Amino acid sequence: MNWEKSTPTLLEFAADNIDAATGVINIVVMVQEGPALGHGVELDAEFINQIVAYDQAHFSKTGIKARFGHPNASNETMGTQMGYFQNFRVRKKAGKMQAIADLHLLDSANLSPEKPNMKDWMLSMAAEAPDFIMSSIVFSPTGYFQKYTNGKKKALDPNGDNYDPEQGPVYVDFGDNGQHYYTDLVEAGAATTSLFSNQVNEHLFVVQVENFIENNPKLKQFIKAHPDRVQKFLQTLGIAPKKTLSMSIKELFFGANKPEDDVTLSAAEVTELREKMASLETKFAALETENAELKGKLATAETALATANEYTAKYKQEAEAAKEDARKLHTEGKKGIELGKTEEVELDINKRAAAIAASRKA
């Protein structure tokens, strides 16, 4: 499953909403309506209403977890737990719908071995410089869509084949199958580029690469340190993307300092990157094999269940037949007993009649 992150949103809480004694910060903006800057997609008012409804249905009692930063696949999440959000609701501010909630900080956050004193730091920053902190939701959407001129939705294909750049922006559809996992607290301007556009037309490849890079920080560090080698490596693979896509990849990796010229990539470096890609392909193949095995076991279990159901139905029919046979035998037995009694009475009457006739003759 691909988890996605929203563009960071200023928390926008007022000083009088901070209760240091209880460790609660009230009316925190988790996510708001508007464009996801730099990603070519938008969150509309319906998205905000749907995610609040989801949180109310699933997290009213337990709250949704809040973490310090956005831990990725290469980071240990243990020790980043800061607290949880509760009391989910929507409001409209400056013409935009916002999902807001109350942040309850954990006392244990101060004891974290990874991020000591998180609770005290958060309360202090909230009072002193709240504009340094942003919130960013981690979620998975149902899909993506564009809007016709009449406002109706046009769902986009999984690969964005029916994407029309003339039809306006792409919107994220939280929908019936969307899920909200975390609302994290991040630094203002933090990189949260792993979001939204991973299923929209030409952005598909860019964001897949981006997700991989973000979840492998050592590789990202290597790419940033050796941008020229990466450029040459792409050429050795025979990759000749369109100019817009090429620029998007370079900006994704290197930001404003993207390289302009290509330089030679050594054979050893090419081999290293190829080995890493081969390792990933091997892991993917193993997962596919495991998935096929699980499907086979499921099919076997379903067959066994169907056979058991057939035997159950058969035994039930036989039991009903035996029950009917017993009932018939019982009925016939009663009739036999009643007939026997009638014959005994008739024999007794005949005996008495014969005795009377004999006495008269005497």
Could you characterize what this model shows?
- This protein is of the alpha+beta class.
- The chain has a domain at 4-200.
- It has helices at residues 45-59, 118-128, 203-214, 217-225, 227-236, 243-254, 267-361; strands at residues 4-5, 9-10, 18-19, 24-32, 34-36, 41-43, 64-67, 81-93, 96-105, 133-140, 143-147, 153-155, 170-173, 179-187.
- The strands form 3 sheets. Strands 3-4-9-8-7 form a 5-stranded antiparallel β-sheet. A 5-stranded mixed β-sheet has the order 5-6-13-11-12.
- α3 (203-214) packs parallel to α6 (243-254).
- The radius of gyration is 37 Å and the shape is elongated.
- Residues 189-204 and 241-250 have low confidence and may be disordered.
Features:
five-stranded mixed beta sheet, 7 helices, alpha+beta, 362 residues, 21% strand, five-stranded antiparallel beta sheet
